[in-house]
Structures are given as structure tokens and as C-alpha cells.
Predict the 3D structure of the following.
Amino acid sequence: MNSDTQSIQAGNKDRMIVAAAIDRSFVEPASVLLASIAKNGDIPDCSLAILGLGLNDADRKMLKQSCGAMGAKCLFVDLKQVEGRLKKLPVTLAVPSVVSYARLLGPDLLKGRCERILYLDSDIVVQHSLRPLLEMPFDDYVAAAVPDQPGNESMRTYRVEALKIRDPDHYMNAGVLLINADAWNKGGYTEKAFEFIADFKGGSFRYLDQDVANSILQNDWKPLPRAWNFFRHGDEPEFSLDQYSDASIVHFASGMKPWVRNSRHPARELYLSYRKLTPFADKPLMTEKGRRIGQALRSPISTLKGIIQRLRGD
Ligand SMILES: [Mn+2]
């Protein structure tokens, strides 16, 4: 725990902490995410948390600067304390970093600090007020999320047979995951997640922690309207910039990421407007090749594990 974490006093429980989990290869997109939250999130009374693995002082400084007026409310939680647990987990070449699993550990790592955690992927920008997610009653649900795109036959079979999900159409995209922290911890969902991973016999996960979250939560999560995790489904025509602009949370879930030089995502201008609010504003955009090399250099073990898994055809 560093000084930022300690400065949040016990008893000063936040109603909501907005959290993201990253390693060094995601400092830039996470900075853009934080800048968008500070600008549009309308949650000055909440805190931000970066669950970080291997971040250095310069990384933390850039992330904090990106929070603008919310800089004093940005806390860092070092995933080093759980690295032993994370290291053993499976990764894929598409998602080569174990930090993706940190969303399953968030309620444990932030225990007692908040009533709810809004976990956001780092390939996201927030465009409008997050207050509805702060005010929304959980009813008896442990979490809330937006349903993912309907899967094809093979995907639906995988959900039912490998993941043991009873209703294959009730499958969330975990890129935006609102967690009822006390209910999660009381129900032991972090432990359920690790047990599920240890006992998993279905080959490799297709969507890692998202598969795990769906399997352990089953019907304990509440579906949210699509505007809270807006991205194009594979079978849909592309959306216009206006459609993306209207969404509360835009998720750059598929295709080339908008921080890569040749990305043609229709919401790219939106993305770059938030990037201008970060210390990365004057830096050149990375190339796809540079992105892959950077990822491999920063997470060599995970990248290697991903390559080996792919070669083995898991
Ligand atoms: Mn994502």
C-alpha cells in the first residue's frame, strides 16, 4: 500500500469507486479513460482507483495528471500483493495480461472503502454523467452489466457446456461491471471465481475473467441498458459518430484500438479529444507493431504463455 491508499481514512467510505486494472502497456489508454471520467463523469464525491501491476512513478504521475480536478481522489492499489494468485491464471494472445482478472479481486482489494465499485476496462471513454449508476438500486443483485452480443451456435454451446451458464443468452460484457461490494464479499464471489478457474475443464477460456464472472454470477447480475457499454456487435452495421456520442460509455471492444495510428473507428475523434487532456497529448500515436512489441516487452511472461497456448491449440 502506498501513501495514496493510506490517505483514504477508514470511515470515509465512498459511495462508489471507479476502478481500472492495468499493467504498464495500458498507461496511455487508462489515462484517456481517467480524463474522460474527470471531464464528464459528474462524480466529484467518488474516488478513482488504479489497480496496477508493475507501474513506476512516472506512470503514476501521468495517470494522476490525467485525472485533472479529481487527481486528489485517485488512489493506486499495487497488484504486487496478489501477483502470486494472478500469475497462475491462464491468458490468451488476445488478452495477454493477467491484470484482466483483477476485476474479480477488486471487491477484496477495496474492502471496506466503498459501497459499490464501477469497474471499467481501459479501452473505454465516459461521455456523460455516471450518477445514474451511483443512484441505481441493486435490488437483490450482486452486480449489474450490459448483456454481450448474442453468441453464435458454437459460442452458446461453449457458454452452456464449458462455463455451465444455465441461460446462454444471459451473458454479460464485463468491460463495464458495477459491483455491489458488500454483497459480493458476503457471497464470497472472489473465492468462487478462483475455485471455478481451478476446477475448469473446458480447455482455455475464450474471454478469461469475463467468462468466469458470467459463470459465478449466473442470475445474480442485473442487465443494464446498452448505452452503459456501447460498442458495435459483430452482426451490426457500423454506428455513426452521433450514435457513439449519445452513449454514456463507449467501449472500443473490437477492431483496432483507437490509440493505434491506423485505427479507423468512427468514434476515433471523440477518443482523441480526451487524449488531448492527458500528458500523452503531444506524443505520437503508437503503431500496431509498436503496440505488440511494447506489450511483449512489458509483459514477456504473459505474452509467451499466450503464444504457447495458441501453438498448443488450447
Ligand atoms: Mn475492453
Residues 27-40 form the longest helix (14 residues). The CA atoms of residues 32 and 274 lie 6 Å apart. The mean pLDDT is 90. Residues 121, 123, 175, 251, 253 surround manganese (II) ion (CB under 6 Å).
